[in-house]
Specification:
The complex is a heterodimer of chains A (about 260) and B (about 260). Chain A is of the alpha/beta class and about 260 residues long. Helices cover about 40% and strands about 15% of the residues of chain A. A seven-stranded parallel β-sheet of chain A has the order 3-2-1-4-5-6-7, with helices on both faces. Helices cover about 45% and strands about 15% of the residues of chain B. The chains are: A alpha/beta (about 260), B alpha/beta (about 260).
Chain lengths: ~260, ~260
């Protein structure tokens, strides 16, 4: 008997990095997982097979989605309902960067970050809330929304304005919906996760050696996080073990913000 | 059954109380061997010992007992604590100091006494040894009539962060985090409600409870088990990148 037997999760940005680790963790603990990402469905067959979703009745499935595109959401929610019939866990994980000196940033740069990191989280919650509310009625701890903010939603770095602003927005949007669901007795908990620097292929490839040295050197534990360590935190919040947690922040940063 | 704490040795102080007792039960269910302590020896642990957390001598005795039986300590839950409800103008220095001794000084004595055992665990344990200090939502925001308590819980919060960073710097492989419960169904909360009524902050216990319920968006107090499950998570290797962090389990209390 696993923690998520019979539960259905939806993970945005679930093909790579932290999102992939979250999908793997939830699958390993018994959940069925719908993964959304930007890739075309034809390009993810190997990934789905690796996740065990290729076989008939497999618990992993994929939908192609730009999270910030509202027009795509109704069909996405229908795809979850058609394939799995319910939704217990939403992990709004899809996110992109947004850095650079202020003088070189354009409004288009700003909007690109907000489109994914903020609009994408709003739309995920807005469109999944009805299914989550239904499913939450049969779960002792209610259904669970986990948003992926960042330590950059708590503290800032120079030249990270769009990213900082977007992750700060995720933090307080999550608290606000937590309070709204609680006030309306809707059985959905909502919490944010704040990873420190995580060793994802994307971050490693896009960072200079100096930057990587900064990530490890500025983290008290002296290393970057593995994606699986963030996934473990998400799994805790998604489970009934966190039944009294809502509107809260789970900071998984190796001590970065404790300084 | 494979538990996340199979084979682990964990010490829980204040194990005779609501959260402490539930924590002992949850840790054992996850596979840990639990040393449970309280002023009077409790009865839920694998080993149950009488322990005054303000006494350096007692800490030496408890650590010695763990050393001789197990030689290591994987998890340390500093849960013992007391609350005082009083107006600042009526609080006595003696009572203030007593509370700081139980809630804050115990944190220092605890780490000093058990550090060799925790370091031993940290040498081999995946995710490091884990210290969990029980603070409160009263360590994040203030509360009327509870200045001494909130002072102590704020101290626990930042002592935990400092210890976390220090142990990381020293490469001890010991994580330190704090847990911040909101109102929980325990004897301590019943006492707090009774004192609110005594001090005229509410006309009766029912009104006082309703007022406190309303501060928790989930509309109820938490159950001790709902704190215990968070403590198990922090003790486990699932929290291997968490140190110096705060686990707020408060039904939304601090989100508004």
């Amino acid at each position: 008997m696993s923690r998520f037997d019979g539960s259905v999760a939806f993970v945005t940005g679930g093909l790579r990095g932290i999102g992939r680790a979250i999908a793997e963790r939830l699958l390993a603990e018994g959940a069925s997982v719908m993964i959304a990402d930007l890739a075309a469905p034809g390009d993810v067959e190997a990934d789905l097979a690796a996740l065990g979703g290729a076989a008939p009745g497999g618990r992993a499935a994929y939908v192609s989605l730009d999270v910030g595109n509202e027009a795509a959401w109704p069909a996405t929610v229908e795809a979850i309902r058609d394939r799995f019939g319910r939704l217990d866990i939403l992990v709004a994980n899809a996110g992109i960067g947004g850095t650079g000196p202020l003088a070189s940033l354009t409004l288009a740069d700003w909007h690109r970050t907000m489109h994914v990191n903020v609009d994408g989280v709003f739309l995920a919650v807005r469109h999944c809330a009805a299914m989550l509310g239904e499913a939450g009625r049969d779960r002792p701890g209610g259904s669970s929304i986990v948003t992926i903010s960042s330590i950059m939603g708590l503290v800032a770095l120079p030249q990270a304005g769009p990213y900082n602003a977007s992750k700060g927005a995720v933090r307080l949007f999550t608290k606000s919906i937590a309070l709204e669901f609680a006030a309306s007795k809707t059985p959905i908990r909502a919490n944010s996760v704040h990873p420190g620097f995580v060793e994802t292929p994307l971050l490693i490839e896009s960072s200079s050696q100096d930057e990587i040295d900064f990530y490890t050197g500025s983290t008290p534990l002296g290393r970057m996080a593995q994606p699986a360590e963030i996934a473990a935190a998400v799994a805790f919040l998604a489970s009934d073990d966190a039944s009294y947690m809502t509107g809260s922040e789970l900071v998984v940063d190796g001590g970065y913000t404790a300084q | 059954m494979g538990g996340v704490l199979d084979g682990n040795i964990v010490l829980v102080t204040g194990a005779g109380g609501g959260i402490g007792g539930a924590t002992v039960t949850a840790l054992r269910a996850a596979g840990a061997t639990v040393i449970a302590t309280d002023l009077r020896a409790p009865d839920g642990g694998d080993i149950n010992l009488a322990h005054d957390v303000t006494s350096e001598t007692d800490w030496a005795r408890i650590a010695g007992e763990i050393e001789s039986r197990f030689g290591t300590l994987d998890g340390l839950v500093n849960n013992a604590g007391i609350a005082i409800v009083a107006r600042i103008e009526d609080e006595t220095l003696e009572s203030w100091r007593r509370l700081q001794a139980v809630n804050v000084e115990s944190m220092l004595l605890s780490l000093q006494a058990t550090l060799p055992l925790l370091k031993k665990s940290g040498e081999t344990r995946a995710g490091g040894a884990s210290v969990v200090n029980i603070s409160s939502v009263g360590g994040i925001g203030g509360a009327p009539l509870m200045a001494s308590y909130c002072t102590s819980k704020g101290a626990v919060r930042l002592f935990s962060k400092s210890a976390a960073i220090e142990f990381a710097m020293l490469k001890y492989n010991i994580r330190v985090n704090s847990v911040h419960p909101g109102g929980i169904e325990t004897a301590m909360m019943d006492d707090i409600v009774a004192r609110y009524v005594e001090l005229g902050a509410a006309p009766d216990a029912e009104t006082a409870r309703a007022g406190l319920d309303a501060q928790h968006p989930l509309g109820r107090w938490g159950r001790p088990e709902e704190i215990a499950s968070g403590i198990v998570y922090l003790c486990s290797s699932a929290a291997s990148f968490m140190t110096g962090s705060e686990l707020v389990i408060d039904g939304g209390f601090t989100a508004h």
